[in-house]
Amino acid sequence: MMPTCPLCASTDHAPYHRDARRDYRRCRHCALVFVPAHQRLGPAEEKAVYDQHENSPDDPGYRRFLSRLFEPLAAKLSPGARGLDFGAGPGPTLSVMFEEVGHPMAIYDAFYAPDTAALERSYDFITSTEVVEHLFAPGAELERLLGLLAPGGWLGLMTKRVPPSVEAFAGWHYILDPTHVCFFDEASFRWLAERWQLTVSFPAGDVVLLQKT
């Protein structure tokens, strides 16, 4: 059976690139580039990679990195807007940054904060930084997150977008991380916006803001 695109579920995809470790296919419908399921890491191997991350709210450099999403999204929020940081990782930081400016935050992470009660509430905004490239089923996960947003709510994502050529993709550092299995094109986010009737903007090269209309 032909595998489906993990974002849009189309079977219309083709080989895009191959390196010594993995194959990469590109969807002709939503432009997502993805690694076939049989070449993904298992849960224990995946977590072993994440355990090496040393992110912390006490790290000024990490805060500067996250500010590329924090600043444009915070400027759009009403005072006291409630948020969820999805995929907060072992050192939640973005949630701390929003709490510091008056936004109550919940966190969820499949490995480090797996309390699914956080996924049963409604939010004014949801953030997910350097997460969607790790998702095995980004279409289903993003649909779930959009379902948690109140009308007019914001979904802020940070992930590097696919380079403009196969040659650039082949030399791209982002594909060296074995936990990165889905690579979004700008067209992928535009497809998502059209599919779910969202407004979309790109305030930075690796940031996208989607508003539920």
Care to describe what's here?
With 213 residues, the chain is of the alpha/beta class. The chain has a single domain (13-212), classed as Rossmann fold, CATH 3.40.50. It has six helices and ten strands. It has helices at residues 43-50, 60-74, 94-100, 138-148, 166-170, 186-196; strands spanning 13-18, 23-27, 33-34, 83-86, 105-108, 123-129, 149-158, 182-183, 198-204, 207-212. A six-stranded mixed beta sheet has the order 5-4-6-7-10-9, with helices on both faces. Strands 1-2-3-8 form a four-stranded antiparallel beta sheet. Strand 4 (83-86), helix 3 (94-100) and strand 5 (105-108) form a beta-alpha-beta unit.
List keywords for this structure.
six-stranded mixed β-sheet, Methyltransferase, SAM-dependent_MTases_sf, four-stranded antiparallel β-sheet, methyltransferase, 25% strand, Rossmann fold, methyltransferase activity, 27% helix, transferase, globular
User: How large a portion of the residues is in β-strands, by DSSP E?
Assistant: 15-25%
Please tally the helical runs, counting DSSP H or I stretches of 4 or more residues. 6
Tell me the span between the first and last alpha carbons. Answer: 37 Å
CATH topology: Rossmann fold
Report the sheet with the most strands, covering strand number, pairing sense and barrel closure: 6 strands, mixed
Q: Compute the CA-based radius of gyration.
A: 17 Å
Q: Please report the first level of CATH classification, the CATH class.
A: Alpha Beta
- Summarize model confidence as the mean pLDDT: 96
CATH architecture classification name? 3-Layer(aba) Sandwich
Unreliable residue stretches? none
Silhouette: globular
- Order of H and E elements: EEEHHEHEEHEHEHEE
Strand order of the largest sheet: 5-4-6-7-10-9
Overall structural class, as computed from helix and strand content, comes to alpha/beta
Relative helix content? 25-40%
